[in-house]
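Inputs:
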Amino acid sequence: MRHIISLLMENEAGALSRVAGLFSARAYNIESLTVAPTEDATMSRMTIVTTGSEDVIEQITKQLNKLVDVIKVMDLTEGSHIERELMLVKVKAVGPGREEMKRTADIFRGRIIDVTDSTYTIELTGTGSKLDAFLEAIDPAFIIETVRTGASGIGRGERSLKV
Amino acid sequence: MEATGAEIVVRCLAEEGVEFVFGYPGGAVLNIYDEIFKQNKFKHVLVRHEQAAVHAADAYARSTGRVGVALVTSGPGVTNAVTGIATAYMDSIPIVVVTGQVPTPAIGLDAFQEVDTVGITRPCVKHNFLVKDVKDLAVTMKKAFIIAATGRPGPVVVDVPKDVTAHLTEFVYPATVEMRSYNPVVKGHSGQLKRAVQMLLEAKRPVVYAGGGVVLGDASEQLVELTRLLGFPITNTLMGLGGYPATDRQNLGMLGMHGTYEANMAMQHCDVLLAVGARFDDRVIGNPAHFAREQRRIIHVDVDPSSISKRVRVDVPIVGDVQNVLTEMLSLLKQAKEKPDAAALNSWWTQIELWRSRNCLNYNRNSPIIKPQYVVEKLWEVTRGDAYITSDVGQHQMWAAQYYKFDKPRRWINSGGLGTMGVGLPYAMGVQLAHPDAQVACITGESSIQMCIQELSTCRQYRIPIKIVTLNNRYMGMVRQWQEFFYGSRYAESYMDSLPDFVKLAEAYGHVGMRIDKPEDVEAALKEAFSPALKERLVFMDFQTDQTENVFPMVGAGKGLSEMILAEEL
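Outputs:
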């Protein structure tokens, strides 16, 4: 099953490689991993999307907790949560397809953030499946390049991950 | 007063009460060695290979319970040390390894003797640090010692670039350091403790299964009291030997791949299992699916939450310091109105005695060729069971574990997790230095001993009078055994050709060498080696043992725990 694991860790050189190394050393899956400093610059927050049986997920959270640089770990998928991912897509925008591309972007609440006479760069946020749906909705021949951040997640309501 | 980074390293070690630093100098650590030269707080032991420095520090820690320290230079110093670090990591041994690094401006430029030490050691340390600023050095050293020794212990590497060892700063050694991200659990959950005690009291066919955590957590005394109070059978893992006296009737001996018949049968057929500081690893329970076929309730006490429910699902997990948890358990048991079910226990013991009567460790005592088991038994007798025994890895290690009956913790020093050939000699050095008046023997094989044989020179330099018991069967015995059983007796590269004359070799290093060919000479040789006349000397005993002897009982890899091959079945 797919799980989103959030963690707070010391914002130190090498902390990221400890997490990444743990996943490769123990053969855990990583679907995506995002990390950036929090409002407290001494800490980073990481969101890891992974898949595995309940036993594997339990081991993943325990092993993450064991890392000395990791301050707190939370499996967001254990409760209600919000998940968002950002994608930038550069597409060909020429001829009759140019108007169609803008309409599709509008339907998905995408924003065109860069324009040339032959391309659009569209910014989209949402769950991973929404971003997938957008890519499926446009003609693949028009896609020049895509870049995705991987999911970030946060608990709903009072549920929070903090020190 | 200001101090250089090098002075700070040395003063931190002195503040920690370090007795021995095992090391080998090199360019990146010259400033530190210069400070070592000027001080007299601790003794530096010059090894002949960095791997041995780490092993010796590791054995010092295993035998004393204190943090062992090694010091190596950058680059090859570090890569040589990695085997030692990984060995300590797998067995959760508290050591601090200080490594030199190229100067900070040179890091990442492929400088001479540069390796990414933090990167290379990351998967085999509890934690590691690269100290880029001399102001962080003292606090980092303090953190290293705290992290190494607390919670589930383990090795910590502190990588110190050469320029940092020259930089000046005010030296203040903190009494302690708070780390918001590091707070090992000490006390067990009280609700779980109550459930556990209830479960123990209801047990009909209980077994206590105690591992290295009992030894490392200094919980032997509590374990003995608890087990005796309950009247339960107990089995020790390879790492747990000595945690409960081997000569005690309640002890079924070691379990696992080469465990006793009675221990493995009891483990498989128990209804309540109390696992203490053990981790259900593949050499212990065999095939997990086969193990799970029998219904049993499991209580698992461990300081490391990730060791619980990793390979086997447990019913009552208790995370905490083993000594603390067992003490709590004891007081709950003493308060409880119920007593263990005497009738059920009686019939369980009857069953166990039946298993025990198979006498699975029996071997041919009338052999005209020296049986390796016989040497270990005689060693036990000659040392009155009171020696520190180190071993290497292979058949001799299993025979040492089976036939040397350890009655005290921290007496059995071996590489259980990583299975590192070559540890025996440097382990014995570390143990003997820590316990100068104790009898220390290294049980080894002719293959393993050659992996760190250069340390005979270190032993000469520091007059380390260990006794080396080589069970020389001219084979990598355990490899040969597996080839015999599982590879149609095709002994691919497992025969040791062109062995040195170990007697002459020992003499060349300035030690005493003995070669023993006949069973009737075994006891006399051991007695001589441990006699007052040779008390100050290293004695290398080369026992020519039976080439075809195998270790029994044996659970084949991937087999169930109760699917043992016994000696008489062949």
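Remarks. The first helix of chain B runs from residue 5 to 15. The CA atoms of residues 373 and 399 of chain B lie 6 Å apart.
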